[in-house]
């Protein structure tokens, strides 16, 4: 690991520690893993490189995640909107999914990931996509229209405090606060 530490200046490492929920060791491991996703000739400049979404999705920690595409979309700062990630994007993602991140931070990003149309609310279409991601897209696991409608109705009855037909961030955070296992299940460990 000494090789990766030498490419990440001590001052930068300190800044990353202050700005994330990650330890020095976790940041160095993240740098090593991020660098390994780059072609060999680009690894020396890992801090300024972008890794394509297709490479990010090869990480075992994301490969099996049903929200892998939304995770890349939410954490990518790419001007090209190609969901590629810089090292800082990658660190932000790992920080949010770390054990040390607060429940407020985790629930904020979970809400953004589940808000498929990025309109600031979870409406019926977002909830349907969320359920489909969790249950799988196969014929044998897909809910019938009636089952889907009943499930969405139940979710809204439980979560939609202001009865506007959608779930906003504060309503979502209220529900998550009543779920003790949320923070421990919303994580990625390298």
The class by helix and strand makeup works out as: mainly alpha
Gross morphology: globular
Main sheet summary = 2 strands, antiparallel
DSSP strand count: 2
Oligomer: single chain
Rg measurement, Å: 18 Å
* Strand order, sheet with most strands: 1-2
Mean pLDDT: 93
Cα distance, first to last residue? 15 Å
Q: What fraction of residues sit in β-strands?
A: under 5%
Query: Residue ranges: pLDDT <50 for 5 or more in a row?
Result: 1-5
Along the chain, the helix and strand elements come as HHHEHHHEHHHHHH
**Helical percent range?**
55-70%
Number of helices: 12
Short description:
This protein is mainly alpha-helical. The protein has helices at residues 2-7, 10-19, 24-36, 53-56, 60-63, 68-75, 87-96, 103-114, 124-135, 145-159, 169-177, 182-185; strands spanning 50-51, 85-86.
Please explain how this structure is put together:
- The chain is globular and about 55 Å long.
- Helices cover 56% and strands 2% of the residues.
- The model is unreliable at 1-5 (pLDDT under 50).
- The chain has 12 helices and 2 strands.
- With 190 residues, it is an all-alpha fold.
- Helix 6 crosses helix 8.
- The protein has helices at 2-7, 10-19, 24-36, 53-56, 60-63, 68-75, 87-96, 103-114, 124-135, 145-159, 169-177, 182-185, and strands spanning 50-51, 85-86.
- A two-stranded antiparallel ribbon has the order 1-2.
Could you list some keywords that capture this structure?
mainly alpha, 2 strands, two-stranded antiparallel ribbon, 190 residues
